[in-house]
Amino acid sequence: MAFRWKNDLKDCDVTDEAVFLNRRQLMAGAAAGIGLAATAGGRVGAAGELVPNAWEDITQYNNFYEFGTGKSDPVTYADELTTTPWTVTIDGMVDRPADYAFEDIMKAMTVEERIYRLRCVEAWSMVVPWNGFELADLLDLAGVQEGAKYVRFETLYRPEEFRGQRNGWIDWPYVEGLRMDEAMHPLTIMATGIYGRDIPNQNGAPLRLVVPWKYGFKSIKSVVRITLTDEQPVNTWQQILPNEYGFYSNVNPNVDHPRWSQATERVIGGGLFQPRIPTLMFNGYEKEVAAMYEGMDLKKFY
To answer: Which residues of the chain have pLDDT under 50?
Structure first.
């Protein structure tokens, strides 16, 4: 039976950050919280409560190479990026190709909260309470044509504001891609916020992809172009290091990175002496997404 996401949250339902981080308050709603965790993917603490990371964890420990290669570069230089006005070009195999203004997209979409695990290919992890809408709804707005098999994404290219784009070690702009069934899956969202606030520049403002069963680099930030195509895109890391990064990039503890193990992960915000935890197949979303890869050799299609 195909997995379907039940949308019962609206923007006004977003839980205040202080409530999320206060265990005593959360325990009072533990029964409801466990149900949300089971579907939305939040980690569950010993008392049954949801345990998202703090705002500071999420926004200050980050990879966004457009700002630089250091973990603190994105938050340090985020103010240099302007996000208003913002348009997203949707083209290729669609019925209504156009430059869609961000404001018009938001008027047409239903924003809800999704609490997802985030697993970086570097073997660290956190839990993020995103706000956003299903990518499928945005693609439906543009009208998916028969024969479209893949979705290609591009990040903004603006080296005068993205200082990391002033070097040539990446062929900018940053590119990512999904197979059509992955893009249309109800767990795949375009995030517009964190903890009910607008998504910060360092996390991919104003619009980023979030695919929770894949390594974090697949969740491309500051998206300005979405192209539907019948050819598999070559994503940026696949182009740079094809022996290390494939097209799919599904979280898989049984397939190590050539330079480190993927069997365990370090939880950000867990303290200096917190032990590493086992990495879950498909980042804990195996029940929801494994059927899409049935019969595939996941070591070959990494």
So the answer is: 1-3, 7-15, 19-42, 46-48, 50
Which residues in 122-133 are b (16+ Cβ under 10 Å) and which e?
bbbbbbbbbbbb
Q: What is the Cα–Cα distance from 226 to 12, expressed in whole angstroms? A: 28
Residue 205, both tokens? 């403002």
Give 14-18 contacts, CB < 8 A, sequence gap 24+: 14/113, 14/129, 14/131, 14/193, 14/195, 14/196, 15/113, 15/129, 15/196, 16/196, 17/55, 17/195, 17/196
**Token pair 């083209």: residue:** 91
- Show the DSSP H helices in 51-206 as ranges: 55-60, 73-77, 102-108, 135-142, 180-184
- Helix then strand then coil, % of the chain, to nearest 5: 30, 25, 45
Model-wide pTM > 0.85? yes
CA distance 217 to 19: 29
Q: Which two tokens stand for residue 18?
A: 């202080």
- 176 strand-pairing partners: 153
> DSSP letters of 232-246?
----HHHHH-TTT--
**Rounded Cα gap, residues 204 and 130, in angstroms:** 12
C-alpha to C-alpha distance for 118 and 106, rounded to whole angstroms: 24
Rounded CA separation 206/249 (Å): 24
pLDDT of residue 170: 95
